[in-house]
Structure formats: C-alpha cells, structure tokens
Amino acid sequence: MSLSSLTATPKVILQLCISTIHRFLSVLLTSLHWVRGSCKRPASVAPRLEQHEDQTATTPTSVNYHFTRKCNYKCGFCFHTAKTSFVLPVEEAKRGLRLLKEAGMEKINFSGGEPFLHDKGEFLGQLVQYCKMDLQLPSVSIVSNGSMIKEKWFQKYGDCLDILAVSCDSFDEETNQLIGRAQGRKSHIENLYKICSWCQQYRVAFKINSVINTFNVDEDMTEQISQLNPVRWKVFQCLLIDGENAGEDALREAGKFVISDDQFQEFLERHGGVSCLVPESNEKMRNSYLILDEYMRFLDCRDGRKDPSRSILDVGVKDAIFFSGFDEKMFLKRGGKYNWSKADMKLDW
Ligand code: SF4
User: Residue 89: how many CA atoms within 13 Å on its side-chain side?
Assistant: First the structure.
C-alpha cells in the first residue's frame, strides 16, 4: 500500500478516488466522443482535453510545496486551511524533492500553513539545506507569516536560503487584528521589520506578500514598503477557493473580504510609484502555480476548488502533473520565471 494512502484519513482517500475517477471518466468520455466520428467537440470539454494533452510535457520548473496546513494565525481569507495536521516524514519529503529535481525543478518554495511551526522550523531547515546543498537547486525560498522565525534559524540555515517572503497586509495593527493576521496582541509589524534586518544581516533576499481585501483596500503603503525595500512586493487580489475559504465544507468564509477588479486596480494605481510591486489578479493566480499539498499531490484549481492528483511519491512526477491543471503560459505571463537565485541578484546587503 502506498505511503499517502496509509496516512490519509478515509475521507481524504474517498475524495481522492472520486476525484480521480471523475477526471478519468471525463477524459475517456471526451475521447470516445471523438472516436465515434463526431465532428464537433463539446465546447465545455474541448479546452480541458487540450490542456491535458499539453500537460504531459509540463516541466515542474517552479514548485510550491505546502508541507503543512497548520498555522498559528487565523486570516479570514486563508485559502490553504488546516484541513489535516499531516506532515510527511522528512526522508519521504526529501525523496519527493529529488523526484522533482530529476523532472526539471529549478525553484522550490516552501509554504503552508505556517512552515516554521512544525518541529520549530527544524523540518523546514533540513529541507532547505537538502535542496541547496544536495540537490543544488538555483532557488530555494519560503513564504511565512514571520511570527515563528528566530535568529538562530538564520544562523544555522540562512546560507542555504535565497528568498524569504513575509506576509503583511497592513501597516495598521488594528487592521491586521481584524483580518486575523496576528497571534494574540503580538505586533506583526514589529516582527516584519526585525526579519527584514535579519535578512540583510544573513544575506537572504527579502520579499513581502500582501493580500488586498475589503479591510486594506483603501490603505496607502508606499512609505513603509519603500523603507523596507523588499526585492519584490507581491500584491494579490483576495481569491475564493471552494472547500478552503468558500462553500459548505470550508473552514473559512471569505466572502466579506472579496474586492472587485476595479478596487484592485485602484489600489495598484495608488502604489504606481513602487517599483518592486508585482501585481497578481485572480485571473493570473488561479492556475499559474504548481501547488503540492502535504501528501505531495498536485492541486488542480481550475474548477475554483483544489482537486488533488495522486501523490508523486506513488505515481511519479509525470503522471501526477497530468492532473495539476497548471497553466504554463500564464505562469510565464505573470513573470513566474524571474531572477530567483540570490547569487544572481545585485543586492545591497
Ligand atoms: S498566515 Fe497564511 S496560512 Fe496562516 S492563516 Fe494566514 S493566510 Fe493562512
């Protein structure tokens, strides 16, 4: 029996089976439709089939591995929620990372949940070190809320890390509290400045990620972002994902955080003078990330929810990626491939 099926809950296994059968049937039925000599493909399935055909050749150049779903924050719009507490054994995670490297991975990003939470950052540190030293990946990065990072971690693993992105949606503590981007009354903003200075000291490129939603859409962050001077400021439009932050079995209800495309555009125009800003609308975000969950299954977001493939540990990268829904063209269009190794960045440390 496979590792992931040993460890997944019966509900997860059932969901996985239904989803896989559903996808096989839809591809099969579409193929039969063609074999029987029909001259027209049904409009609803035609683009999906073409994408599957294309995806047999997809290279996992840049992968986001959400190895844990647990987090100490409670952001109201979170779209990768604590639906399980599962984390792979470290040796299995390394095996999966090696498979990805052999399939062409150049950049790995560790994310969650909060990646520094599990084993106080040791699990993460070991994977970061493995990817840089053993696999020699050009780029190793982390996205974190920043609250659990200690200077000791930088001393031990900082050399192996190219980029650290910290999430910050507001420079007003009250707004962070309202969003849920906080643990108790601890200052998220003070922490952000501390991590920024550690990144300078330990030579890690510093990035900021912000989710624009109803609570921060009118804010002007120009001054603080200019002070912090990140290499990239990623600005996301709040996104709804069924089963994560929308719909019946979701752990969050993010409807009240959603903003319109026009509101997002206004926010971007207000920050037009910030040269490191990289905007990401819902359209750009939806399928342009290769996302691996805690079982190392690719998540397909095309239908507005996250449908898992089988684990790369069970079927290999090529078969699993076939069901990832990854849109390589959009990945390139959103500038997904950039100067992502700190050795190549001209940073003023
Ligand atoms: S910090 Fe990230 S993972 Fe944690 S609740 Fe917020 S959005 Fe979700």
Answer: 8
